[in-house]
Automatic annotation (TrEMBL):
It comes from the Bacteria. The keyword Amino-acid biosynthesis does not apply. The keyword Ubl conjugation does not apply. This is Dihydropyrimidine dehydrogenase subunit A. Residues 151-458 form the FAD/NAD(P)-binding domain. It comes from Roseivivax isoporae LMG 25204. GO terms for molecular function: 4 iron, 4 sulfur cluster binding; metal ion binding; oxidoreductase activity.
Length: 478
């Protein structure tokens, strides 16, 4: 009888891939975790309890079959593990790197609840797919037959690319439109290289292009091509623009030079550092933290990306202001810990009141306390009277989240309904909007959310589009 490779959690402790020393990793933009060796990956995968009700799977937006690919990994059957992982996830190596596993799969692991430490699901997922690329197991997109129908996808972020992948594998002709010069959306220009190295994203873009997906980049809908033209050209349209409009700061001095948007700051860094592009705002110092006292305002994952980027750019100091305490921040606790190791200072229960100087020289800060819970159940921050103080700053980065652009107005589209938050109204699971043949997925429907949810939406929507095309084809054949 073969030796049972699973249920090792009682004897084997949780272990992560080795993390590079903070003083060394803070000098570059390489990923901070090393790769699992095969023996270590098998050992850690073998800690899975193979529980009857896998909460890791049910709490994954993609419902990845995590217990099965952990078991296959523990048995050394890596190619099969990859095939199971790829069956439900278009980009498993990306999710393995950037998903907040501590809030999703790992945070709901049964053995974690019993005090044994969660299975390192994300690290194993990354290892499986990185190995698949290295071994040539990742197959090119090759539809069994070509179909005449055409689908246009607006936005080359994770939701749009996931939909493109599913549709192209079914033989549909797919064109992806994006305003940027490279596909990938926030995967390319928003998330720093120390969390997601850019060749990981580029090889997926190349796989899609080699498989027959057409990319029209540097293409701004409403300016370079109208929405009406897309409707004439394609049998269906999927809106996957994401949300890029930054929430703003109020208060005296908020328009001063040196107060910048997080998306501009991160994009400039990714272009200059990871792609070697010439970025005048980076080279001039406008969007470069080198030698500066940096204050980042916000507590989400974008704020974490900003503070850790500023450290790597050689900032004199980096502080993060967040109006709630550590336990109530929306960002990943793992990211906070990494930032602290690298030298970031967090000022909990603080918020900006105003700004000094132009260019900015400081932030006037309120101290806060947590009051009664709000409608979401979170305790509302309240200003402590007379607690103001000044925080010196040469660069202030606003990382307060994102809102949708006014697409109907921007594109001149009548009948595209939006919610009171400005997001596109779309049917749950299918993404169908009020306009026939027009769908919407990802953050433009949900509001700012996780990459894994955008992938889920893109895949679900692609299935609905295929159903629509099949139904139309059946009617035409009658």
């Amino acid at each position: 009888m073969a030796k049972q490779p699973m249920l090792k959690f009682v004897k084997v402790g949780r272990d992560m891939p080795e993390k590079r020393d903070a003083t060394l990793r803070a000098r570059d933009f390489g990923e901070i975790y090393a790769e699992f060796a095969s023996r270590k990956a098998e050992e850690q995968a073998g800690r899975c309890s193979q529980c009857g009700v896998p909460y890791c799977q049910s709490h994954c937006p993609l419902h990845n079959n995590i217990p099965d690919w952990l078991k296959l990994t523990a048995e050394g059957r890596l190619q099969e593990a990859y095939e199971v992982s790829q069956a439900t996830n278009t980009f498993p190596e990306i999710c393995g790197r950037i998903c907040p596993q501590d809030r999703l799969c790992e945070g709901n692991c049964v053995i974690e609840q019993s005090g044994h430490g969660t299975v390192t699901i994300g690290a194993v997922e990354k290892y499986i797919t990185d190995t698949a690329w290295d071994e040539g197991w990742v197959q090119p997109i090759a539809p069994h037959r070509e179909r005449p129908e055409s689908v246009g996808i607006i936005g080359a972020g994770p939701g749009g690319l996931a939909a493109a992948d599913v549709l192209r594998r079914a033989g549909v002709q797919v064109t992806v439109y994006d305003r940027h010069d490279r596909a990938g959306g926030l995967l390319t220009y928003g998330i720093p290289g120390f969390k997601l190295e850019k060749p990981v994203v580029m090889r997926r873009n190349e796989q899609l292009e080699a498989g027959g997906v057409t990319f029209r980049l540097n293409c701004d809908i409403g300016r370079d091509v109208t929405f009406a033209q897309l409707q004439e050209e394609h049998d269906a349209i999927i809106i996957a623009t994401g949300v890029y409009k930054s929430r703003d700061l109020a208060g005296p001095g908020s328009g001063a030079a040196g107060i910048v948007r997080a998306i501009d700051y991160l994009t400039a860094s990714n272009r200059a550092v990871n792609f070697g592009d010439s970025v005048p705002e980076f080279e001039s110092g406008e969007l470069n933290a080198e030698g500066k006292r940096v204050v980042v305002i916000g507590g989400g994952d974008t704020a974490m990306d900003c503070v850790r980027t500023a450290i790597r750019q050689g900032a004199a100091s980096v502080k993060c202001l967040y109006r709630r305490d550590r336990e109530n921040m929306p960002g990943s606790q793992r990211e906070v810990a990494n930032a602290e190791e690298e030298g970031v200072t967090f000022e909990w229960l603080t918020a900006p009141k105003g700004f000094l100087g132009d260019p900015v020289t400081g932030v006037v800060v309120h101290k806060m306390r947590l009051g009664q819970p709000d409608a979401t159940g979170r305790r509302s921050p309240e200003i402590i009277d007379g607690s103001d103080y000044e925080e010196p700053a040469d660069l202030v980065i606003k990382a307060l989240g994102f809102e949708p652009e006014e697409l109907p107005k921007l594109w001149g589209v009548e009948g595209l309904e939006v919610t009171r938050w400005g997001t596109v109204k779309a049917e749950f699971t299918t993404g169908a909007t009020a306009l026939p043949g027009v769908y919407a997925v990802g953050d433009i429907v949900r509001g700012a959310s996780l990459v894994v949810w955008a992938i889920r939406d893109g895949r679900d929507c692609a299935g609905a589009v295929l159903a629509q095309l099949n139904a139309a084809g059946a009617v035409a054949a009658e």
